[in-house]
Amino acid sequence: MAPDTVSLRYFLVLAQELNFTRAAARIGIAQPALSARMRRLEAELGAALLVRSTRSVVLTAAGAALAESAPPALAALDRAWDSARSAAAGEVGTVRIGYSLSAGAETAPALVDRLIRGSSGLEVSAVPMATPEISPAVADGRLDAGITRGAQPGRGVRRFLLRRARVGVQLAQHHPLAEHSEIEIADAAAYPLRLPDRAANPVIYDQLSGLFRDAVPSPRFRTPTVSFDLSQYDLRDGLTLAPASEAAVASLSAGLTWRPLRGAPGMTLHLVLPREQSPLHRRIRAVAKTLADELHWLPD
């Protein structure tokens, strides 16, 4: 039977001091209590550890052997306890995050960076995915978390509002509407409007196209030939507008700008986690909430 670690740590202090009075003072307990601890430790071991006299304390052969071998054993035990505590706090493990392309401009990188910097024991990987695929992947365990635009449908997951942003349009800096600080929805509807293929994100497509439902004449929607064109080439004609949230500002290429649409409802980004959550999932949630608060992603 192994001795209790408290008595073993007390013994190591005594082995250094070789004096009960000094050792008890260093530990912060009464001398009789220390003596009782040492007698109990010797009884558990079945061997004498100390030779006591009125003036000195001398280690026996067993005591010297224990004083030499105990520190690395206790250090290993401390590491085991720390590992268990870290696992219970969700601070160790592998995190797989899937995110919609629009979240890659700012939101996903910020969350990944905060997770890595906050927990050295976490290995984090993040990959862009088609938005409708993210929630099912979280539900069946292929992903630990997801970031999606809009409250995407799906079973077996929980969604947490992560970010709310104004809705506006991306446009060329020389576009006739770029001189306005805000653009009326009716004015925007007079120009060609680029929207992604609905299959890529039906929730957001319906929200954005619905902004122009009552416009007269009916708006002209375009689907880009290249679904993810970093150059935003089709906006450079000075006519086409691309409805998008304010988060798009972070990834605008040269020659383009963004203007809010007056009266348009905000667009949301959600953190998606499994319905049954482990300490790791709760850690992701806590980090995401702190990040959202610090960066004012959820304004009042």
TrEMBL record:
Against PROSITE patterns, the record matches this protein to: HTH_LYSR
Q: Which Pfam family is an annotated match for this chain, by its short name?
A: HTH_1
| Protein's UniProt name | LysR family transcriptional regulator
Alphabetically ordered keywords of this record: Activator, DNA-binding, Transcription, Transcription regulation
Q: Which family does it belong to?
A: Belongs to the LysR transcriptional regulatory family.
Under the heading SUPFAM superfamilies, the entry gives:
Periplasmic binding protein-like II, Winged helix' DNA-binding domain
> Where does the source fall among the domains of life?
Bacteria
Name all HTH lysR-type domain ranges: 3-60
Recorded hits in InterPro entries, A to Z, give:
LysR_HTH_N, LysR_subst-bd, WH-like_DNA-bd_sf, WH_DNA-bd_sf
